C-alpha cells in the first residue's frame, strides 16, 4: 500500500495578536509538507469562546501571508475538508461524543464549578494527586442530583482507564512519556467540544498524517492517543517542537516579551525572509556546506529541501534578539536597491518623513539615500531618522543636543573653511540627467580635506563632526560627502551657515 500523502496542519486559537509560536509551528509543518509534496492546512481552533477575539483570525492570515508561510486549505480559501473553523464544525463532534458515551468510554458529569473547586482544594490539602474524583461516574442524573453540587447542564468527560498508555513515539524526541491524565472534559456545558476532543476529531476527519505542535502539548498526547483508541481510529504521527524561550529561559509570552507578537516584527521593520530564517535556526542547525562549513543564512526552499526531523533540536531555544538583528541586517544588505527602497516607504510614511504618495523627485532622492544607508541599518524602522534630514526644509532641521554638545571649540573655524571651499565648487549640470557636475562627493571630499585637514591641520577624525551636525542634525549620519551631494549645493551651504550662525 502506498503511504498516504502527508497532510500537516497548524491550528492556532484566535485569542489575540498572533503569537510568534504560530509562525514557528507553521514553518516546520510547512517545510516538511513541501518537501514531501504534501498539503499544509490552516485550521482555526476557536472553541474557547471566553478567549475568542474577532480580529485575531484575520491577523493570523495577514502575518502568515506576510511571512510567505502559505497554506493549501484553510478558512479563507476553503478546501476539500471545509469548514476549517472549529466553531463551524460543532455537528461533527457530537456523534463522536455519542459513541464514547455509548461504549462507556465517556460519561456525563454534573459537578458545579464550586464543587470541583472544593474537590481540588481538598486534594491539595491532603497532598493527594489532583484530578476529577469521579463522583458522577456510574450515576444516573437522578442519583447524582441527590449528592449536591449538582449542575443542570452536564459536561461530558472521557474515562481514563488505569492501564492507559502513557508513552508514545515522537519524531523529534523518540520515546516520550507523560503523567497520568485525569478524566478530561471533552464536551463543555455550552455544547462546544474542548480542545482535546476537537483536535482528535478534526485531525482524523481532515486526514492529518503528522501533528507537529509545541512541547506544551506533550502531556495531552496520551489523552489524544486514548481517544483515537477508544474511537477505533488510526492516530497520526507526532512531533513536539521545543518551546521558544526568553533570555532568562522562561517561556516566551506576549505579556513579558513584545517579540512574542508577530505584528511586532512587522512594526519594527524586520524582513519576513529574515524572520523565517531566524525561526528555522531556533530549532534547526545551520546548513552544512559540502566543504564542511556551516551556513546560517538560508532560504525557506533550502530548509524545506534538506529538512529532517532527526535534526530538530528538542532543547528549548533562546530567542536571541541580537542574532535576529544581525540576520535582518544581512537580508537588508542583500536586497536589490529598488526593492529595499520600496520596503522603506511604509516606515517613512509612518514616521512622517514622506507622504503615502511621494513624488517622482522624492522617490529618486530616496533611492540615492537608500543606497547610502543600506549597509548601516539593522531594521527598516532604523532608516527613518537617517532619511528624514534629506526630506526636511533647511530651516526645519534641528541640530540635536547630542550633536551640538559634541562640537569642539574649533567648530566655527571648520564651518567657515568648509563654507568658503564649497562656495567655490560649481553645481552646474547638477541634477541634470546624463550630465556630470563638479558638485559630487569625490570633489566635495577632496576640497574639504584640503582646507580643513591640510589647511587647518585638524585630524580627519575630528574635522567633519561640525559638518555632519550641520547637514544631518545628528552625530551619526549617512556618509557625509555623499549626503552633501544628494542635498545639493544650496541646501548644504544653507545648513552649514545656519549652524555657524547659531554658534
Ligand atoms: N489550538 C492549539 C494551539 O493554539 C493547537 C495545538 C495543536 O496543534 O494541537 O496551540
Short structural description:
This protein has 503 residues and is mostly helical. It is 44% helix and 10% strand.
Bound molecules: glutamic acid
What is the third-level CATH name, the topology of the largest domain? Rossmann fold
Instruction: Identify the CATH architecture of the largest domain.
Output: 3-Layer(aba) Sandwich
Structural class: mainly alpha
- Tell me the span between the first and last alpha carbons: 86 Å
Give the biggest beta sheet. 3 strands, antiparallel
The CATH superfamily of the largest domain is identified as: HUPs
Report the strand count. Answer: 11
In total, the number of domains comes to 4
Strand order of the largest sheet: 3-4-7
The mean pLDDT is 95
- Extract low-pLDDT stretches: none
β-sheet strand percentage: 5-15%
Q: Any idea of the CATH class of the largest domain?
A: Alpha Beta
Compute the gyration radius: what is it? 32 Å
Question: What is the element layout, followed by pairings?
Answer:
Elements: E1 7-10, H1 20-35, E2 39-42, H2 56-67, H3 90-102, E3 106-111, H4 113-125, H5 141-145, E4 150-158, E5 167-170, E6 174-177, E7 185-187, H6 195-205, E8 210-214, H7 221-230, E9 237-241, H8 262-268, H9 272-283, E10 287-288, E11 294-295, H10 300-306, H11 321-334, H12 337-350, H13 360-373, H14 383-387, H15 401-405, H16 411-423, H17 441-455, H18 460-463, H19 465-472, H20 480-487, H21 489-502
Parallel strand pairs: 1-2, 8-9
Antiparallel strand pairs: 3-4, 4-7, 5-6, 10-11
Helix pairs in contact: 1-10, 6-7, 9-11, 12-13, 16-17, 16-21, 17-20, 19-21
The chain binds glutamic acid (GLU).
Amino acid at each position: 500500500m502506498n503511504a498516504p500523502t502527508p497532510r500537516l496542519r497548524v491550528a492556532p486559537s484566535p485569542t489575540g495578536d498572533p503569537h510568534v509560536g504560530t509562525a514557528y509551528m507553521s514553518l516546520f509543518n510547512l517545510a516538511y509538507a513541501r518537501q514531501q509534496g504534501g498539503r499544509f492546512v490552516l485550521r482555526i481552533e476557536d472553541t474557547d469562546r471566553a478567549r475568542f477575539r474577532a480580529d485575531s483570525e484575520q491577523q493570523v492570515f495577514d502575518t502568515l501571508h506576510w511571512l510567505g508561510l502559505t497554506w493549501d486549505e484553510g478558512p479563507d480559501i476553503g478546501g476539500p475538508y471545509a469548514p476549517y473553523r472549529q466553531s463551524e464544525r460543532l455537528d461533527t463532534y457530537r456523534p463522536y461524543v455519542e459513541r464514547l458515551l455509548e461504549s462507556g468510554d465517556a460519561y456525563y458529569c454534573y459537578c458545579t464549578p464550586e464543587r470541583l473547586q472544593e474537590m481540588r482544594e481538598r486534594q491539595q490539602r491532603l497532598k493527594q494527586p489532583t484530578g476529577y474524583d469521579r463522583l458522577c461516574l456510574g450515576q444516573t442524573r437522578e442519583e447524582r442530583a441527590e449528592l449536591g453540587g449538582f449542575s443542570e447542564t452536564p459536561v461530558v468527560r472521557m474515562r481514563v482507564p488505569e492501564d492507559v498508555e502513557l508513552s508514545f513515539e515522537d519524531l523529534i524526541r523518540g520515546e516520550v512519556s507523560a503523567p497520568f491524565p485525569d478524566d478530561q472534559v471533552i464536551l463543555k456545558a455550552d455544547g462546544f467540544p474542548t480542545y482535546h476532543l476537537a483536535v482528535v476529531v478534526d485531525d482524523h476527519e481532515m486526514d492529518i498524517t503528522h501533528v507537529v505542535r509545541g512541547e506544551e502539548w506533550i502531556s495531552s498526547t496520551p489523552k489524544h492517543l486514548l481517544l483515537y483508541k477508544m474511537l477505533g481510529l488510526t492516530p497520526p504521527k507526532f512531533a513536539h517542537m521545543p518551546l521558544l524561550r526568553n533570555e532568562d529561559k522562561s517561556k516566551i509570552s506576549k505579556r513579558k516579551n513584545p517579540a512574542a507578537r508577530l505584528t511586532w516584527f512587522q512594526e519594527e521593520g524586520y524582513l519576513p525572509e529574515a524572520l523565517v530564517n531566524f525561526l528555522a535556526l531556533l530549532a534547526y542547525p545551520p546548513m552544512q556546506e559540502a566543504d564542511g562549513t556551516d551556513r546560517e543564512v538560508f532560504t525557506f526552499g533550502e530548509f524545506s529541501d534538506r529538512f529532517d526531523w532527526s535534526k530538530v533540536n528538542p532543547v528549548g531555544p533562546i530567542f536571541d534578539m541580537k542574532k535576529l538583528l544581525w540576520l535582518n541586517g544581512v537580508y537588508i544588505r542583500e536586497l536589490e536597491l529598488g526593492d529595499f527602497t520600496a520596503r522603506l516607504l511604509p516606515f517613512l510614511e509612518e514616521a512622517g518623513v514622506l507622504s503615502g504618495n511621494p513624488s517622482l523627485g522624492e522617490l529618486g532622492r530616496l533611492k540615492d539615500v537608500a543606497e547610502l544607508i543600506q549597509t548601516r541599518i539593522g531594521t527598516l524602522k532604523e532608516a527613518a531618522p537617517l532619511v528624514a534630514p534629506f526630506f526636511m526644509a533647511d530651516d526645519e532641521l534641528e541640530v540635536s543636543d547630542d550633536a551640538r554638545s559634541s562640537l569642539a571649540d574649533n567648530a566655527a573655524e571648520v564651518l567657515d573653511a568648509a563654507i568658503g571651499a564649497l562656495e567655490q565648487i560649481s553645481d552646474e549640470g547638477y541634477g541634470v540627467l546624463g550630465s556630470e557636475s563638479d558638485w559630487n562627493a569625490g570633489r566635495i571630499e577632496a576640497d574639504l580635506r584640503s582646507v580643513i585637514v591640510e589647511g587647518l591641520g585638524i585630524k580627519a577624525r575630528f574635522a567633519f563632526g561640525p559638518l555632519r551636525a550641520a547637514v544631518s542634525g545628528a552625530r551619526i549620519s549617512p556618509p557625509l560627502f555623499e549626503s552633501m551631494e544628494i542635498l545639493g549645493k544650496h541646501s548644504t551651504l544653507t545648513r552649514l551657515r545656519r549652524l555657524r550662525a547659531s554658534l
